[in-house]
Amino acid sequence: MAFTVFILQLAVRILSFPLYLLKFLGLWNQISKKWFPYYMMKFSTTYNEQMAGKKQELFSKLQDFAGPSGKLSLLEVGSGTGTNFKFYPPGCRVTCVDPNPNFEKFLFKSIAENRHLQFERFLVAAGENMHQVTDSSVDVVVCTTVLCSVENQEQMLREVCRVLRPGGAFFFIEHVADEHSTWNYFWQQVIEPAWYLVFDGCNLTRESWKALERASFSKLKLQHIQPPLSCKVLRPHVYGYAVK
Questions:
Q1: Cα dihedral angle (100, 45, 209, 221), rounded to 10 degrees?
Q2: Which fold has domain 1-243?
Q3: Which H or E element spans position 96?
Q4: Methyltransferase type domain: from which residue to which, for each copy (predicted)?
């Protein structure tokens, strides 16, 4: 089976040669960073429709972690187009972090559509290095479909723990690798070389739950689910929250 995967991956790489050439020439990063927000705007609409129940269920717990003032201070890592805003509680103070500055205009459109939130700032930064955010300064950190593309999951989770106040929580919804015995995992492996290039560094075969289990949280509530997404290779998910 491993040999078959290797041969098919080789075929995928050959078919993707123009993209690899653009990457070699240093052009692909500029192109992908500009077009990716437009793709995510469309994808996020469909994803929200198909994941609405799970998001409502999970994010209904956000307010439980508000500080003594009763107002929730929330940091969203990899905020993208602001697709999660409508699920956040009224009065929530939101800071957004994303490494791609081209998301900004889409983000501000979402802010204008979600007046129930108190927007604070947008920071162009990677999740692994959020030095603009002070230690123990937020009640909650949220990331959805982000751990698939960060360069270093462990470092990002260390940053999450650093910025969370004691007793604060990290909420996550992430697509992950399927069980290794499934045909879905087989195809995740086969198409991953092209997928990674086209979708801005997204990995289909990451077992992100392992990084969450290794992180220094005091409590972790994590579930494996298979939501009925249109794209089958994205169906395996983990979601839940972890408490510092």
A1: 120
A2: Rossmann fold (3.40.50)
A3: strand 93-98
A4: 75-172
